[in-house]
Amino acid sequence: MCGIIGCVSEKDCYGALYDGLKRLEYRGYDSAGIAVLDRELRIFKKKGGVSNLSAFYARGGTGIGHTRWATHGAPSDANAHPHRAGKIALVHNGIVENFAALRAELEGEGERFFSDTDSEIIAKLVSRAYRGDLLAAVQSALLRVEGSYAVAVIAEDRPGELVAAKRKSPLVAGKGSAGLFVCSDIPALAGTAEYIAQAEDGELIRIADGEIEFFDGALHPVPKTFFRPQEELRALSVAGGGYFMRAEIAEIPRALRDTLAALREKDFAPCARALRAAQRVFAVACGTAYHSALVFADIVEKEAGIPVLCHTAGEFRYRAPVLGTGDVLVAVSQSGETADTLEAARLARARGAYVIAVTNIGCSSLASLADFLLVMRAGAEIAVAATKSYNCQLLCLYYLAGQMLFFKEERLPSWWGSLERLPAAAEASFGCFAEVDRLADRLHGARAMYYLGRGLDLCTAREGALKVKEIARVFAEGYAAGELKHGSLALIEDHFPVVCISTGASLAKKSENALAEVKSRGGYCALFSQYPQVLQESCADAKCLLPALPEPLMPAVAVIPLQYFAYKMCLERGFDPDKPRNLAKSVTVE
Ligand code: G6P
């Protein structure tokens, strides 16, 4: 969603805000803006990416910035933040749910609006409440706001001061040599701030007189401990013209190695009792993380005989789940800030369930509300479409599944020792890329595709289809190979592309049958398997040999050529793989 940043510095802060927005751009890139305060308040905002702001500059050590993912109001210069009202400039990430009522009320009282956004309403409310005490004005204005927000506010007559506040949208404060900051997330501050502290829901932050103070909703001071951000969350840098997505795929072996090292050190004893006693296990997540939860559910059920109910987090929270004390909920989220996943975890906690979080950000909102935490070591993931975090999530979930079996039956799964081979196998999967280049070259004009698989391969098929939809804008569906003839076969015609993942020996023949059905109707088939014989005997047009691992571990490797395929398709079709249309990396609104 939107990214916000604020800075108070003894030096000019335009450059620091611009750099911060660049690092926040994965949260939204419809439009961007910066307000800086010297003797007067100056605002620069533009539709389009953050780099549009490089054409401007203004002096001043106090400022705020915003990169937008539109909710209310189309992307435009006017709807870009910061919004100004009287002496106030404000940036906002979130949604004002009582937007229509508040706007009607304010218009009735003669206020004129210059944008279609819900955020401008907060600026108006702060301005109307402002009598020289910015903290008090922000606090009282927010009492009227329903919904979610992280806001950063400055006032024209208060240089050197900035107030921020949060409810349901993430907000952190940081201290660094370039100044004092507030920001939407830690990765965007890693490298700039040496120390960081997080705001909780309902809290406000004031930066003034060279200090950062936290307050509760009644403006009582809240003591905070500042900590050093995870060093590995510093963003990778990509050389001119390179893409983060490509660099992040290349990093998968390193990310898996580091995650493995962290898991080896992890003490699972604290969750042993909860896992041993689990009546029911739930796994919830969104997007790519949901696909890793599907793999987890399958493996735990097979290995430990414990049924796992797996849901997308947004559905889970609204379906009145039967969930309570004695149940375990595993919430998976790269960012740890996805609104639906957070709400599902909160719901589980409120019902007395034990919450295990798997996340890339050890100090995220999800991490802070979990009973037990598994932090992967993917490092900062900047490209909007998840890649290396998926492989690392799977590794964490394999580990967790193994521990569940261990606590239940005092034995480890047969594939446990092979986890060590995952990083090398991931590296070996890069050997498929030449074949995948040819495939993308051939298929880039496709308007739709199927991805087929059975068992765990179906999870990989779904993730492959999601990737190509997200970044290459090709309609794709991940489908159970056995279901093809129950409907979807009707769409197969000459050259219709079908990608099949077949890494389960017992189901390989069945998947091959599906390919034969496609082939005999003129479809174009590409097959991925670690079994040379399966490839040899297949009717597929393109064949790709994956590195071999025990079957339960194959999802973490088989997906890599599919990630790379989506990337290549995206480039062939002329799109930016790092910034897919309409999407944002961190979905902090429902
Ligand atoms: C967004 C991203 C996806 C990601 C999903 C869940 O939709 O575009 O790539 O998988 O959010 O994100 P999370 O941070 O919870 O894993």
Share of residues in strands = 15-25%
Described by the principal axes of the CA atoms, the overall outline is globular
Stretches where pLDDT falls below 50 for ≥5 residues?
A: none
Bound ligand species? 6-O-phosphono-alpha-D-glucopyranose
Rg estimate, integer Å? 25 Å
Instruction: Give the end-to-end Cα distance, rounded to a whole number of Å.
Output: 10 Å
**If you average the pLDDT, what whole number results?**
93
Look at the helices and sheets and give the structural class: alpha/beta
Proportion in helices: 25-40%
Summarize the entry for a quick read:
By secondary structure, this protein is of the alpha/beta class. It has 19 helices and 23 strands. The model has no long low-confidence stretch (mean pLDDT 93).
Structure description:
Helices cover 35% and strands 22% of the residues. It starts with a strand and ends in an 18-residue tail after the last helix. The chain is globular, with a radius of gyration of 25 Å. It is of the alpha/beta class and 590 residues long. The model has no long low-confidence stretch (mean pLDDT 93). Strand 7 and strand 8 form a beta hairpin. The protein has a seven-stranded antiparallel beta sheet with strand order 3-2-4-1-10-9-11. A six-stranded antiparallel beta sheet has the order 5-6-7-8-12-13. Bound molecules: 6-O-phosphono-alpha-D-glucopyranose (G6P). 6-O-phosphono-alpha-D-glucopyranose binds next to helix 9.
